Amino acid sequence: MILNRVPIKDTYAEAFDFLASRVIITADTLEWAMEAARAAVGFGASIIGCGAECGIEGEVKDTPDGRPGVSILVFARTPEDLDGQLQGRVGMCVLTCPTTAAFSGLASDKTVATGGFLRHFGDSYEYVEEKDGRRLWHVPMMDGEFIMEETFGYVSGIGGGNFIIMGRDRASALAAATAAAAEMRKVPGVILPFPGGVVRSGSRIGGANYDFLPAATNALFCPTLRPKVGDSLVPEGAMCVYEMIVDGLDMNSVREAMKVGLKAACRDGVVQITAGNYGDKLGKHHIGLYEVLK
Fold first, then answer.
1. Which residue from 144, 256, 276 is spatially nearest to 203, judged by alpha carbons?
2. Among 81, 199, 259, 290, which one has the highest count of C-beta atoms within 10 angstroms of its own C-beta?
């Protein structure tokens, strides 16, 4: 397939199952809600080393307390891991931030009692309130009270939706990746967990030469290794490769983000677009690039 003069390979992205939670962070101003959100999703690029994959989903217009708000998404492997990540991120980065409150952004029968644990920071001075179907803990703070929901809902999400941009030079590849990221972020229910939404460190499962590594550089996609790797996947004329990775609350959201991202990435200077797959060692979901673009 050729889109805007850019060849797209007939291949698929290998995605995997995740658990996902949405936290709505409110504050007296949008700026303070965003400060807390940025801090809370920090060090959340890859499950390989960060414990969770996190990102800012966007501004929330209709919040539980009527104040300015921002939603973040947090992805982890197990309910225990998810609860631990929420405890750390909400407890260290939202509870500590001036004027904030934290609410569950997903209505689900599956929950983790993150707020039920963090409320102990109140040292027995905290109290609970039932309001609008939510169980809210009020924890005394130096600027008033931190209000947080007792439980946070979670759902089965999708991680690892991806496609790979190969450009004739770094400027062209990065411009395409930046344009793709901007469009992908507009899709509700998804995040791009890596810095700026763009990944330079394409990886393989395990090391080819260091057996202690959980992941290592994917030599097949490194332009500088093309002369050294016989089966390089970097085509002639491509000097820079970037990967776009997207996590979502459901498959449809991931597919839509990939679709708009692929269309935005097909621009001048892009030699080819492909996707990352690993022989089903990473996940069971195949997201075909051609199917996404139909």
1. 276
2. 199
